[in-house]
Amino acid sequence: MTSADTSPADAALQDLDGRLVTRVAEIVREELTERRRQLAMISPETAELADRLLDYLEGGKLLRPRFCYWGGLAALQRDPSDAEVDALARYGTAIELVQAAALLHDDVIDHSPMRRGRPALHVQAECQHREGGLAGSSEDYGTAVAIVLGDLALSWSEQVAAGVQGDPGAVAAARREFDALRTEVMSGQFLDILHQAGGFASAEDAEQAALAVIRWKTVPYTVLRPVRIGAALLGAPEEDLETLSEWAIEVGTAFQLRDDLLSVVGDQNETGKPIGGDIIEGKRTVLLARTEVAADPAGRALLADAVGRSDASAQQISAVHELMVSTGAVASVVAEVEQRALRAGELLDDARMLGRTGSAGLSALAAQATDVEAFTA
């Protein structure tokens, strides 16, 4: 939410956004400083785990805390108090720790070498093991460290959420949403693993399986539950929560469809991961499902030879990119992102009972999360 030339309304949104960003940064540092103190009582080595996590969180876009924040402000017809900003920022921090846990483990599961433009944490730990001349397998060590740190992040997210204060009924409602978030994202992670293995038999076809993975792995912890946590925490009635849910499902689905595009035909500087990584990993995305359906026999043979192959050549990856474009699969996914973004905008426009400031913040976030201009230029 930054621009060199902003209107007074945009400037007000930026000021409100800045309050969240500042407070989340403060809470993250406070919480991890305290965790480091506790770990230092065990050993100097365990204390370094808090340092690793603090470093890992650097550079995050705070997308999920922002959805939580603006969802909360959508429940208000005024600017938030300092206490309300603090409560929303604490839940945003808890969600960010869940995100860290999910990414740490996801990179291990997917054998992803990079995250946010840097070596993935398991790769960093593997290199440190090797350079330090430690005993055993460097790869196994790196995997184990990432799993342990992910478990710690998930545990600490629970502790941060438990410290949120406010109206008891609203705090309890927000906590139910947070509990659902963690259950749903882990369930979605399992469905993703199952789909990758070809075992998601209850889905109608490959595209529906991929959409189900998006619905339960990405949507709940990226948009749906963060928005509902914030709104519930500031007292939104059930009618408003349901409206926000409809909006969040459209935005969250569009966000992941766009992310799938970026992973194969995007800009590495934007994604922080190697372009073509989803092809090498064999990610069973909606984009891939549509490419397979639309491809001719030669195209399907290319996909069989390249997708899911760690030794796929740059030429094969480039050929798959070209096939995704030539079959119309990229264009169809872009169109769906645009349609879902439009539907989400209509839902917010019709939700007159929501706070205008919060709605404007949500609309700005959605625009960022669903921007496909790079694919239509």
UniProtKB/TrEMBL annotation:
<protein>
    <submittedName>
        <fullName>Geranylgeranyl pyrophosphate synthase</fullName>
    </submittedName>
</protein>
<dbReference type="InterPro" id="IPR033749">
    <property type="entry name" value="Polyprenyl_synt_CS"/>
</dbReference>
<comment type="similarity">
    <text>Belongs to the FPP/GGPP synthase family.</text>
</comment>
<keyword id="KW-0808">Transferase</keyword>
<dbReference type="GO" id="GO:0008299">
    <property type="term" value="P:isoprenoid biosynthetic process"/>
</dbReference>
<dbReference type="InterPro" id="IPR008949">
    <property type="entry name" value="Isoprenoid_synthase_dom_sf"/>
</dbReference>
<keyword id="KW-0479">Metal-binding</keyword>
<dbReference type="GO" id="GO:0046872">
    <property type="term" value="F:metal ion binding"/>
</dbReference>
<dbReference type="Pfam" id="PF00348">
    <property type="entry name" value="polyprenyl_synt"/>
</dbReference>
<dbReference type="GO" id="GO:0004659">
    <property type="term" value="F:prenyltransferase activity"/>
</dbReference>
<dbReference type="InterPro" id="IPR000092">
    <property type="entry name" value="Polyprenyl_synt"/>
</dbReference>
<keyword id="KW-0460">Magnesium</keyword>
